[in-house]
Amino acid sequence: MAIEPLAPAGAGVRVVRAWDDGLRSADPLGFPGYTAPASAQESVRTALIELGGRPAVWIDCDFGRAGGTMGAVAGERVVRAFDRAVRAGAPVVQTVSTGGARLQEGMVSLLQMPRTVAAAARHAAAGLRSAAYLRSPTTGGVLASFVSVADLRAAEPGATIGFGGPRVVAEVTGAYPPPTSHTAESALRHGLIDAIVDPGHRWHWLAAAVGAADAGPLVPPPGRPARPGTAPPGQAPYEHLLRARDPERPSGLEWAAWLTDAWVDLGGADPAVRAGLAAIDGRQVVVVAMDRFAGISQPGAPGPGAYRLAQRAVRLAGRLRLPVLTIVDTPGADPRPESEAGGVAGEIARTLLALAELPTPSVCVVVGEGGSGGSVALAHTDRLFLLEGAVFSVIGPEAGAAILYRDPARVPELTRSLRMTPDELLRLGVVDRVLPEDETAVRAAVTQALGHARAGARDVRPHQATAAAVTS
Questions:
Q1: Element (H, E) at 375
Q2: Does the keyword DNA-binding apply (predicted)?
Q3: Among the four 231, 312, 378, 418, which has the fewest Cβ within 10 Å?
């Protein structure tokens, strides 16, 4: 296997041993005019490599070899590669460009889709990481099998990506897809891949994605608050709420950047929630952060896609045995009809379920406004902290006043009645601790909690708060 076209000098990649170079297709259909490619020209080549100084398994599917199509030999090489990775306790990295199934091998080709997915599932069940880099084109049965179940996926800029290639779409529908479809950029926008990465940086991204190299830091967009708020909390509850909503106050994304040292993005379709494989003081952790400055319909209102990203991140953390940090700041979930049609209530429930089933420790920090079920979806954690300038409430008081009183003038009164300020929440047993708005103090509290929290303790606090609220 030639590494040079795929890993330039200095990329930190070295082939240790190529595998299964003797396999060749037996032409199972006797397809007219088909000549099975020589072993070295098969679409899929596999090898044990050294990546960032650590062993890894490499699967390379190249459109330049037999159109990148997956037949019996390609599928067998993929299956063997995953199973060898399981035995070696090694991650799998994939570089892929493909035209899909090999038509000349018929249903034998199609059977490789479930075979390769099952092999990837065995690798995932062993708690091992995988990452794929998609080149142009990446289509068909390869994309719809082992590639799309990789833990993280990136693509080269402008790559053609789609289950049906553009020519197939034109034949089936009578029209070619628009230029905004079937591209890496469209896939990123819809949360189907995690990043767009220049070809010259693909090996560094792959290494970072599987933990074989240091990732870069999380960098919020320009114009965001640069430091935690320094104004004292408001004396009256309504003043406190308004301060929590102050546009100069940092949100979850800023706190995620301040609390972590490295970050590999998990892509999502709704920027109201960001998630990443991160590091905090040398500890690997999965972080899910709400961002009240971003969103599809309105800033800070997570929709169904935001909660699906949170679920994916939490499930990945559980499989990789990593702790989870969630950061909450939202007035509530997106209430638009489109969000309802997308099943936002069910996605909130499934996010709570993912946290309930998480086998590893979890910590939440409410850094701004915690509003209604849209915020509690990320707060069912083993430890729950609240910044001293934050609030947490059953509902935003504006909506609450509309429900209870039909009188917006009573919003300040209801804010007081809902007991949403830190001292009240601590008294009610809703939160474990109130933290000062200081990066060093918050990082120390989070780091200690991640190291000492007991998975499953998330049930104790709500049970105790409920018991204190019940009389017999």
A1: helix 372-376
A2: no
A3: 231
pLDDT at 367 exceeding the cut of 80:
yes
Q: Let me know how many helices (H) and strands (E) the chain has, helices first.
A: 18, 18
CB atoms within 10 A of CB 357: 10
Non-local (6+) Cβ contacts of 433 within 8 A are: 383, 385, 386, 426, 445
13-209 and 237-468 agree in CATH topology: yes
The pairing of beta strand 391-393 with beta strand 433-435: unpaired
HSE toward the beta carbon, residue 406, CA cutoff 13 A: 0
Q: Check residue 231 and give its pLDDT.
A: 65
Match 């300038």 to its residue by tokens: 389
Residue 78, pLDDT > 90, answer: yes
Q: Are strands 44-51 and 13-19 parallel, antiparallel or unpaired?
A: antiparallel
Q: Which residues contact 472 (CB under 8 A, 6 or more apart)?
A: none
Burial 70-79 (b: 16+ CB within 10 A, else e): bbbbbbbbbb
Say what angle helices 439-452 and 252-259 make with each other, to 10 degrees.
Answer: 70
Consecutive H or E run containing 97: strand 92-98
pLDDT tens digits, 262-311: 999 999 999 999 999 999 999 999 999 999 999 988 898 999 999 999 99
Please give the Cα distance from 456 to 168 (Å, whole number): 49
Please give the Cα distance from 436 to 174 (Å, whole number): 61
Percent of the chain at pLDDT > 90 equals 83
Class of domain 237-468: alpha beta
Q: What CATH homologous superfamily does 13-209 map to? A: 2-enoyl-CoA Hydratase; Chain A, domain 1 (3.90.226.10)
Domain borders along the chain are: 13-209, 237-468
Q: Is the dihedral of CA 171, 177, 179, 181 positive or negative?
A: negative
Instruction: For 214-260, write each residue's pLDDT tens digit.
Output: 899 999 999 998 888 766 666 799 999 999 999 999 999 999 999 99
At 352, which amino acid appears?
Answer: L
In whole angstroms, what is the distance from residue 361 CA to residue 321 CA?
Answer: 9
| Contact call for residues 321 and 290 (beta carbons, < 8 A) | no
Q: Closest Cα partner for 327 from 340, 313, 338, 337? A: 313
Q: Do 20 and 80 touch, CB atoms closer than 8 A?
A: yes
Instruction: Provide the token pair at 64.
Output: 């330049």
pTM over 0.85: yes
CA distance 354 to 75: 32
The tokens 């099998």 sit on which residue?
A: 145
What single string gives the DSSP state of each residue in 20-52?
-TT-----TT--TT--PPPGGGSSEEEEEEEET
**Do the bridges between strand 152-155 and strand 100-101 make them parallel or antiparallel, or are there none, so unpaired?**
unpaired
